Amino acid sequence: MADPMRIRAQAAGDKTTVRVLMSHEMETGQRKDSAGKTIPAWFIQEVTASHNGNPVMTAQWGPSVAKNPFLQFTVKGAKAGDKIAITWKDNKGDSRTDEATVS
Questions:
Q1: Hey, which of 13, 20, 22, 58 would disulfide with 71, CB 3.0 to 4.6 Å?
Q2: Which range of residues forms the domain containing residue 55?
Q3: Does 22 score more than 90 pLDDT?
Q4: C-alpha span between 84 and 36 (Å, rounded)
Q5: 16 located within any domain
């Protein structure tokens, strides 16, 4: 299983900025190893975010996203103490969910 995501959610007024650093290799399927064999594609396909269990964002990604991707977005109405959960799913069926508390 992948390493935990680093999530920071900071409220400022009625908006909360969420920053997420995900740990994932993100292979495009176009690189070759030292023996000349193509390295199979392995990348995050879907990222979802929820605020206190209610979905607030969904993103569809492809193989061109960089290794260990960073994502930032804003949520309206989140207050200190609320929960923000991030889930990603990759093309091999792996997934990870992590949660942070708004500060």
A1: 20
A2: 6-101
A3: yes
A4: 43
A5: yes
What total of structural domains would you count in the chain?
1
Instruction: Give the pLDDT confidence score for residue 1 in this predicted structure.
Output: 53
Quote the mean pLDDT of the chain.
94
Measured between alpha carbons, how far is 39 from 29 in angstroms, rounded to an integer? 6
Is residue 76 a part of any domain in this protein?
yes
The enclosing domain of 78 has a CATH number of 2.60.40.10
Percentage of residues of the chain with pLDDT beyond 90: 88
Task: Name, in order, each residue with C-beta under 8 angstroms of 67's C-beta and a sequence gap of 6 or more.
Answer: 24, 25, 26
Whether 1 maps to a domain, the answer reads no
Write the CB contacts of 57 (distance below 8 Å, at least 6 apart in sequence). 47, 48, 49, 73, 75
Q: 66 lies in a domain?
A: yes
Q: How high is the pLDDT of residue 64?
A: 86
What is the predicted pLDDT for the residue at 3? 84
The total number of residues shown for the chain amounts to: 103
